[in-house]
Amino acid sequence: MKEIATSNRTREIIRKHGFTFKKSLGQNFLIDGNVLDQIIAAAGLDETRGALEVGPGIGSLTERLAKSAGKVTAVEIDRRLIPILKDVLAPYEHVSIVQSDILKTDLHALWQEHFTGLAGVSVVANLPYYVTTPIIMKLLEDKLPIENIVVMVQKEVALRMSAKPGGKDYGSLSIAVQYYCEPELVCIVPGKAFIPEPNVDSAVIRLKRRPEPAVSVPDEEKFFRVVQTSFAQRRKTLANNLSALSGKERKAELGDLLREIGVQPERRAETLSLEEFAAVCEALTRSGMLA
Ligand SMILES: C[S@@+](CC[C@H](N)C(=O)[O-])C[C@H]1O[C@@H](n2cnc3c(N)ncnc32)[C@H](O)[C@@H]1O
Predict the structure, then answer these.
(1) What is the domain range of residue 50?
(2) Quick one: which of 72, 73, 122, 158 could link to 148 by a disulfide (CB 3.0–4.6 Å)?
(3) Distances (CA, A) of 123 to 62, 190, 210, 252
(4) Ligand 1 centre from 56 Cα, in Å?
(5) What's the domain count of the chain?
């Protein structure tokens, strides 16, 4: 039988089950086998490893994962897709389908139930674009033992996740992702690789989980608060944004503190490296400006 990720087979499955797309759930199904080849190669799976898929749709990526991994668990929010997935994936006993909203799923419990004893687990997905950032942040912040996250996202989001300091793409998402992972752009994917065609370009990005965060910080919550506050208004200087934390009355002191650690207060947040944000966080904590 032809694989699911072809235009003909996808249309046939949709017709057979009377499925209609829900734009509100970000339903754009992949029909390009070459893109799937690149996703699978980037995920580095084998029969000793597992894959968590978010949003399997009608199973085009799930089918490929089933052929590459020792265990596959796919979490799909749309109840209408569950009987379709059970039908098309029936030949694969090591594939589990879970009907759930990934953002409301207890991933630690899921890990224990589905992935115990495996050499490693990667998250591999063509993500629903309306919730890409919350999904990525949940996967990172839940501190799960993930090897790689290989995901299709909107091209702009992939550029933001992998951006280096100094450009317009660099912001709090770049820092959050790079704190936990090493990002690598795998490929750019045009709209015609999907049914229906989205009106944006997409990209596959690989986030290789670091064994330890990129920088050492006194407190992660404080570090990310400093980063968020620094980018609150991109055109403002670092000192202007950070005075929201120190209080306006301590702004001069804040300027001196930044200069002391070699960060000019007139700089904009988008020029600071992760190491510099860590140093700012440490200095603000030490001075009592960051409670
Ligand atoms: C871009 S489609 C990808 C479908 C399939 N993996 C493919 O590549 O053809 C996104 C999928 O995520 C599902 N989805 C949307 N929001 C979700 C959520 N919060 N939790 C789990 N799945 C979700 C959608 O129903 C849809 O099947």
Answers:
(1) 7-209
(2) 122
(3) 12, 22, 15, 46
(4) 6
(5) 2
